[in-house]
Design brief:
With about 650 residues, the chain is an alpha/beta fold. Helices cover about 25% and strands about 20% of the residues. The strands form 6 sheets. An 8-stranded parallel β-sheet has the order 19-18-17-14-11-10-21-20. Strands 3, 6, 7, 8 and 9 form a 5-stranded antiparallel β-sheet that branches. Keywords: Glycosyltransferase, Transferase. Its EC number is 2.4.1.18. This is 1,4-alpha-glucan branching enzyme.
């Protein structure tokens, strides 16, 4: 076994310090967390035969069939007095199949094959663990390592279904793109029908659109099984199970495989920041105690989310979570992860009631959860060591320094940070009268839907090209294009679009719940709108496609940061250069400019392309005169195809 620690020494912070000299006073904190990471990695190598074996524990925990059809079962339940297996296979005899206790709270059971040579437990049969607690109570539980769970319409909890198909599914991976253009999607809402859509529907109806639009990366939400549909997938109950609402595990594998065949990599929304508080079908009180997978007492509870918080310092919790990452990579062929709730993980206060100002003292000290920091470092190190093309994205709103620096430089090892503040900032600009007098200069790199904010109820009646375009629709459509292009070109090293935003999806997203009488009306994506030829949604869709294709040609996302030469508050003009392209945006609501002088890095002739944006004031006010969005290319070739006549 290769010693993966041998190339590690104290991190060289010179590169980090050159990029960010303000980190110097906290060099000791960075050295400390790196040392803790090294020590943890060394323990894994020594005690478990290497992190490769340790993180493949999904091959031994749970239920596994050997070549002779013997079934081996293994669980970790340190608080249990006894453990039993029951289900369809033994007519639900509660105590007929006891596990054998092992060291460190582990339990094992071996089931020989039937006389005909078939496994004792058949594919798709129901199972339950029976936990005898130390106070004498019997609890029915689902294995934390269960790979398939389902729920009937008349039940509020999930059933553990033994998934053991005769022919395992195979898949392949495409190479990592030079920069991610991400299409974020939720399988269940990926249909205009008022229902829960399926993996198969996604393959047939959504993947072709993702390919046509020029996105090279698909990010799937709500795949890890969650009992509460309206949680958007963020209250996970079964970490190794693909959500059965949308189909079978093989259906999900087919989806990933089809995306790969189109040259699209697939990321999974990974929720390791917390877990559902459900007991019967979740991890909570699995062995009858509140401290099996989580911190005991208040530290193990998230006050705002009503969920449980993992004990990242626990050896077996590390086994569970790190093996979970590898399970989704190996079994389903995912290409990486977006880690949800990283801010909550990084700090003991979980970001609750904290407004991060950017002061570095907020990112170091006693408020930082070093166990969680080390866990994230281990996650990134293992993923990138074993899967060199793996992409990891952190959802962090705090701005933790070094989050995306390499571990050997003292960072946490993520490839990208998801800038969650961007859509909020755009909405803030709109709410404050942006487009008339607001300051449009604070930007980052990812975008959710804004069309309904811009056009509101007129989207129901005035999106037809067969009628005269109204001022609200005209202004809203042009601003929608402008916002996307500015975010795409100036933001960062990647771009994320939530499904439907590419064509200005109307209405808000709202999952079935008691407050809306369990309606699916707003839990869907109306792709039929973009398929209707006379509706203007097609124009927004075409702009999105051309924008992505142009980025693919010139590569501004994979180039260095933009050089901003003009931020004129009076003229409301933004000028910047990136990837040998010159971008000029005029946000002024009433003024157009001719012979406008801008600075450039390289002298020469710049072919000039202009898109007229008619920005109108609110009803009852005077109509603004046209303003312009201009986009120039520092090369001989033209990119007129990006802009169609408005």
């Amino acid at each position: 076994m290769e010693d993966h620690c041998r190339n590690f020494s104290l991190p060289d912070l010179n590169r980090f310090l050159q990029l960010d000299p303000y980190i110097k006073p906290y060099e000791g904190d960075i050295q400390r967390r790196y040392r803790l990471f090294e020590e943890c990695l060394a323990r894994l190598e020594k005690a478990e035969g290497g992190f490769d074996q340790f993180t493949r524990s999904y091959q031994s925990y749970g239920v596994h069939r050997r070549s002779d059809s013997t079934l081996l079962l293994k669980e970790w339940a340190p608080g249990a007095q006894a453990l039993y297996l029951t289900g369809d296979f033994n007519a639900w005899e509660k105590l007929s199949h006891p596990f054998t206790p092992k060291a460190f709270g582990k339990w094992e059971l071996s089931l020989p094959p039937k006389p005909d040579g078939s496994p004792a437990i058949q594919h798709l049969s129901k199972l339950k663990l029976v936990v005898l607690t130390k106070d004498g109570a019997y609890l029915f539980r689902i294995s934390p390592w269960a790979t398939y769970v389902t729920k009937t319409l008349d039940s509020v909890t999930y059933d553990w279904i033994h998934w053991d198909p005769p022919q395992p599914y195979k898949h392949r991976r495409p190479p990592q793109p030079r920069c991610p253009r991400i299409y974020e999607a939720h399988v269940g809402i990926a249909s205009p029908r008022e229902e829960i859509a399926s993996y198969k529907n996604f393959i047939l109806d959504v993947l072709p659109r993702v390919k046509d639009l020029g996105y090279n990366c698909l990010q799937l939400m709500a795949v890890m099984e969650h009992a509460y549909y309206a949680s958007f997938g963020y209250q996970v109950t079964n970490f190794f199970a693909a959500s059965s609402r949308f189909g079978t595990p093989d259906d999900l594998k087919a989806l990933v495989d089809r995306a790969h065949s189109l040259g699209i990599i697939v990321l999974l929304d990974m929720v390791h920041s917390h877990a559902s508080s459900n007991t019967e079908d979740g991890l909570n009180y699995f062995d009858g105690t509140d401290s099996c997978f989580f911190h005991a007492g208040p530290r193990g509870e998230h006050s705002h989310w009503g969920s449980r918080l993992f004990n990242y310092s626990s050896w077996e919790v590390s086994r569970f979570l790190l093996s979970n990452l590898r399970w989704w990579m190996d079994e389903y062929g995912f290409d990486g992860f977006r880690f949800d709730g990283v801010t909550s993980m990084l700090y003991h206060h979980h970001g609750v009631g904290v407004s991060f100002s950017g002061s570095y003292c907020e990112y170091f000290g006693m408020q930082v959860d070093e166990d969680a920091v080390v866990h994230l470092m281990l996650s990134n190190y293992i993923l990138h060591k074993l899967y060199p093309d793996c992409i990891t994205i952190a959802e962090d709103v705090s701005g933790m320094p070094g989050l995306c620096r390499p571990i050997q430089e003292g960072g946490l090892g993520f490839d990208y940070r998801l800038a969650m503040a961007v859509p909020d900032k755009w909405i803030q600009k709109k709410s404050l009268g942006w487009g008339r007098s607001g300051n449009p200069l604070v930007l980052w790199c990812h975008l959710y839907s804004l069309a309904f904010w811009l056009m509101d109820k007129e989207m129901y009646t005035n999106m037809s090209a067969l009628i005269t375009m109204t001022p609200v629709i005209d202004r809203g459509m042009q601003l929608h294009k402008l916002i996307r292009l500015l975010t795409h070109s100036l933001g960062g090293e990647g771009y994320l679009n939530f499904m439907g935003n590419e064509f200005g999806h109307p209405e808000w997203l709202d999952f079935p719940r008691k407050g809306n009488e369990e309606s699916y009306r707003y839990a869907r994506r109306q792709y039929n709108l973009v398929d209707t030829e006379h509706l203007r949604y097609r124009q927004l869709y075409a702009f999105d496609r051309d924008m992505n294709q142009t980025e693919d040609k010139y590569g501004w996302l994979s180039s260095g940061p933009a050089v901003v030469s003009t931020l004129d508050q009076a003229d409301k003009v933004i000028v910047f250069e990136r990837a040998k392209l010159l971008f000029i945006f005029n946000f002024h609501p009433s003024a157009s400019f001719s012979h406008y002088r801008v600075a450039v890095q390289h002298a020469g002739k710049y072919p000039f392309i202009s898109l007229r944006l008619r920005l109108f004031s609110r009803p009852g006010q005077c109509c603004a005169v046209p303003a312009f969005l201009s986009f120039c290319l520092c090369a001989a070739e033209s990119i007129n195809h990006l802009f169609s006549a408005v």
